[in-house]
Write a structure and sequence with these properties.
Distance between the termini: 57 Å
Number of domains: 1
Structural class: mainly alpha
Shape: elongated
Strand content: under 5%
Radius of gyration: 18 Å
Keywords: Coiled coil
Length: 89
């Protein structure tokens, strides 16, 4: 079963729609991570689940990945610039 079908089958109403919107926007990130993140969310205590929806939890995970990727890209660009400066003209 694909992730889209899984979400449609296992979630309802606003949560389903919000997760499908995240799926559309970030298919490649969710494809490999959604089930692990869902299990991580389900392992949270009851109180934490009541204060944080699965949608918000998934959105935070996606945001962290994007931020980390941007940070790595910046570091890589800086390293390349330093190497270019070290090259003899």
């Amino acid at each position: 079963m694909g992730l889209k079908n899984y979400i449609e089958k296992n979630y309802e109403d606003e949560t389903r729609q919000a997760l499908l919107n995240e799926w559309r926007a970030h298919k490649s990130l969710l494809k490999g991570n959604f089930y692990a993140w869902e299990n991580e969310y389900l392992d949270l205590g009851y109180h934490q689940q009541q204060t944080l929806s699965i949608v918000a939890f998934i959105q935070r995970k996606i945001e962290r990945i994007i931020e980390n990727a941007q940070h790595l890209r910046e570091e890589e660009n800086q390293t390349l610039q330093e190497k270019e400066q070290d090259l003899p003209n």
